[in-house]
Amino acid sequence: MEDNRIYNEYDRYLSPLDVLAIAFGCTIGWGAFVMPGTTFLPVAGPLGTLIAMAIGVVVMLVIGANFAFLMRHRPGTGGVYTYTKGALGRDHAFLCAWFLCLSYLTIVFLNATSLFIVIRAVFGSRLQVGFNYYNIGGNVIFMGEVGASIVALAIVGLLFINAKPLLQRLQTVLVVILLACVLIVTAMCLPHLRLDALRGAFGVQGGNKAHAVFSIVMLTPWAFVGFEVISLETAHFDFETRSSRWIIFASILLSGLVYACLTLVSVSAAPDGYASWQAYIADLGELSGIAAIPTFYAARAVIGAPGLLMMAVAAVAAILTGMIAAYRATARILSTMAEDRILSEKFAETTYSILFIMLISIGVSMFGRNALQCFMELTAFGAIIAFGYTSVSALKLAREARNRAVMVTGALGTAASVVFAVTQLIPRISVLETMDANAFQMLALWCLLGFLFYLRIVSRSSASDYSGTSASGTVMFALLLYSVLMWLGKQLMAAETVQVVRETLRFEGSLMLGVIFIGLCIMLYIQRLFRKKHEALERELSLAARHDDEAEPSDPDAEP
Q1: Which residues contact 412 (CB under 8 A, 6 or more apart)?
Q2: Among 193, 459, 475, 527, which residue's CB has the most CB atoms within a 10 Å radius?
Q3: What does the pLDDT look like over 279-324, one tens digit per residue?
Q4: Do 337 and 446 lie in a common domain?
Q5: DSSP code of 208?
Q6: Is 445 inside any structural domain?
Q7: Same domain, 381 and 444
Q8: Could you tell me the sign of the dihedral formed by the alpha carbons of 33, 39, 41, 45, in that order?
Q9: How far apart are CA 388 and CA 84, in angstroms?
Q10: What is the domain extent for residue 540?
């Protein structure tokens, strides 16, 4: 969809600082405060994490250059959808937007459900209302804590509808507070960091150092997803679009700096009884409260109560900025798909989209944070799809413009996205389990839901909108089939007894066959629609050609 709307001066309300706040705020969320202790340090240690982050920043700068190039040449509010449609057609644009929408939507409710973790760490059990809790999948969920997430989601959504300029100012202020708190805490904790902590074991788990660094680099799409959301806002910049290149680069560099700072803070102090950070991190699962979050514990141990307060404020600011930016990005994606007749026209209205996002996120939040861990992998998967399509689009446009620099970044970004995708989908390539059974289950169901929407747009579109076969249908069915098989396979591998295997095959196997059968039926029906539409188009062209021949006047001077 080309954005041909005319934007007046009142639509251009985003300053460079506002745009930087959107990009950086969406990139840094709660994960930046907890992942150093739970993921980065156990795998690669502080030195390996710093090396991996440096490599990840370079990769993101390459992909960021592709976004900046396309933002200059295809401005508007369509972002990746517009880029992909212009380069590869509407078919691929739908596929890209469908998974990117999932990525942004998960950022909204994952950040919202992180609020209660901060509350538990700082205030203990004060919001764990004993008479008003329930249990899902073995996880006890307190309505008092869930209520904090619901209130945050509702406030942000209502501000978007009624006071959008105020919300943007709040976003910018929160980003400044976030960055200032992290840098101050880091500066005060660094003198307490012993050099032998960096020279010590590469990671708690041991193993090959290069493989450990590679495993953390493969988390780059998850760690940096969000900087690209500004590509959806170019029509609202109050400055030249070419300046967005440096804003993208600044947001990526600042994000990498925050991850590095929080990693160093995590190893600057350890509770009594632990001789080293390795022993502390290895025992993290047995701890609770502030001690279970190394970034929070180190800030309090080194600085005292003010340090804990600064870290808590920074974490809440990161959560809120991530929510605000992801709200905005999800609404833009929904609006873009609605304007191109993929979704109902109602989604073109900001109020309707925001209310939809709010209600979905509130409903999902009721399941509690622990039940939503699988969505983290889906956030990364959506980002990988977006990075890949953007890089391919930049490469194609750069070839037409004979821009050699962007041809190089486009090719490198495409190659990096392929590596990310392969590592994400195939187990055992990295040290970390990139997708568990629940993540594959949700991916399969999202593909199935995508089939239904894809069927809707194919039935309402002309044959000229597509060429020959359905790329989206083929890719989604292949991904659906692979996800279902991996989902069942991981369930069987986790089974401890023959009885559990039998029950898994009986229930999960039946569900698996049902999902595959429905997906196959929809794909075959879509292919049938394609065939009928193209046959009708060929008949129309044939009749038009015949009428043109009959309408041509005869030449009296022509030879018999």
Answers
A1: 62, 391
A2: 193
A3: 898 888 888 888 889 999 999 999 999 999 999 999 999 999 999 9
A4: no
A5: -
A6: yes
A7: no
A8: negative
A9: 10
A10: 437-548
